[in-house]
Amino acid sequence: MHPTEQFKGIETFVYTADAGSFAAAAIRLNLTSSAVSKSVARLESRLGVRLFERTTRRLRLTDAGQTYYRTCTAVLEELKAAETILAAQTIAPSGRLRVDLPSSYGRSQVMPVLLAFAQLHTKVRLHVSFTDRFVDLIEEGIDVGVRIGGPDSWPASLGHRYLGSERLIFCAAPSYIKRRGMPKTEADMDAHDAVLYHKADGTSSPWRISHGNGHIEHRAIEGGIVLGLGEAQVSAVCAGAGIAQLATWLIKDELASTKLVEILPQLATEGLPLSLVWPRSRQLLPKVSALLDQLTVSLSVS
Question: Which of 12, 165, 214, 260 makes an SS bond possible with 171, Cβ 3.0 to 4.6 Å?
Answer without folding.
Answer: 260
